[in-house]
Amino acid sequence: MTIQLQFDRIPPEVEIGPHRHGRETIVFVASGAIVFEHGDDLERRVEVRAGDVLYEAPSEYHLVRNDGTIDALVLLAAVEKDPGEPGALPRRWDQPGEPVRRRESARLISRPGLHHRVLVEPGDFGTAGAPAGIATSAPSTSSSSSRDGARCGWGRSRRR
What we know:
With 160 residues, this protein is mainly beta. Helix content is 0%, strand content 46%.
């Protein structure tokens, strides 16, 4: 398995797509917000805000747009299976809910001096592409609760 990480800045009024990746992609929005439209006719729409995580299924037709007034900063983790590696065929998101995990609903682990939010648990999104989970960490001060996402980090949690 190969994981490609890419940090992107999406300025206001910029649209990327529509397109397909052909690989699983996990998107962490570090600041700002993006609109994710997907489906055959781009009929499904969800806003993904700072601190949220979005899953893009390999065969999902989609576009990403910044409708906000500030740059959206996003970290993408694209997962590609090695040639010959067994695994499921590329799939689309056909679940009733949207492929987003919200910062507010993350499991919170507090330790002295640190808040750790587990945004994506192993096996979330029904795929092997996010097997280890995704978490953000911030100092446990009053400034770490800001909604701009500026204090968020990217990390991998241990497998269970």
